[in-house]
Fold Ferric uptake regulation protein.
Amino acid sequence: MSEEKVKEWSARQKFARFLEEHKKRKTPERFVILEKIFSSQAHVGAEALYNLLLADGYRVSRATVYNTLDLLVEAGLVRRVTLGDGMTRYERVSGSINHHHLICTRCGKVKEVKAVNTVAELLPKKPRSFEPAYYTLYIYGMCSSCARREQMMRAGTTEKSR
């Protein structure tokens, strides 16, 4: 079994326990939503997830998507993130909880990179009344594809102006 499938299976087990402990129904729709998030490498918004489910032939309501996302966040399996455009997206919680997001300001592409011990650099002296749980750093710039495209456009503009 691949590492991704193991993570997804483990998440299914944890979600099933969470639903039982909170006396919530274990519906197929909830597990399909979990599966879609864990199979996606992207940060997905609720509406995009809803549309993806419909396109794949699942009959699920918007309310079910939003409510299930809330349950997944509460269960600690999914995290809400806002990547600078004001839209809430969701990412699976797996591997290192501390990571950075490289966000292209042109196309909106998001890439996750593993964090080094940034908290020690940001908080060299731990505040007495604060216990850090996790952190995420957003770094904005231009992805290599957009940078290449812009460089080609500049080169074309320079040649035309000669």
